């Protein structure tokens, strides 16, 4: 949803930005769930974070904003 919204607004690196947001959000929520003892939820968000990290590794370099 984030990527589509950014693409609609005309942001050039929408996929990379959305993956970065997903990485931070997934990692944060995985840590929070693990600290509360919710193992299944922690694993699900950790998988999301790893998927976003892999997407960032495979994407082309950043484009200039101008």
What does this protein look like?
The chain is mainly alpha-helical and 66 residues long. The chain has a domain at 14-58. The chain has helices at 2-8, 14-35, 39-58. Helix 1 (2-8) runs antiparallel to helix 2 (14-35). The protein is elongated, with a radius of gyration of 14 Å. The relative contact order is 0.17. The mean pLDDT is 90.
Secondary-structure class = mainly alpha
Q: Helix tally?
A: 3
The beta-strand count equals 0
Summarize the biggest pleated sheet. Answer: none
Measure the end-to-end span. 24 Å
| Low confidence ranges | none
What integer value in Å does the Rg equal? 14 Å
Order of helices and strands: HHH
The helicity comes to over 70%
Q: Which overall shape is indicated by the principal axes computed on the Cα atoms?
A: elongated
What is the overall pLDDT average?
Answer: 90
Share of β-strand residues? under 5%
Short recap of the structure:
74% of the residues lie in helices and 0% in strands. It is mostly helical and 66 residues long.
Write the layout of secondary structure elements.
Layout (H helix, E strand, L loop, with lengths): L1 H7 L5 H22 L3 H20 L8
Helix pairs in contact: 1-2, 2-3
């Amino acid at each position: 949803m984030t990527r589509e919204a950014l693409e609609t607004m005309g942001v050039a690196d929408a996929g990379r930005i959305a993956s970065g947001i997903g990485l931070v959000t997934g990692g944060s929520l995985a840590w929070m769930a693990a600290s509360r003892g919710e193992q299944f939820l922690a694993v699900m968000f950790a998988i999301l974070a790893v998927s976003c990290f892999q997407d960032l590794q495979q994407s082309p370099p950043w484009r200039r904003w101008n």
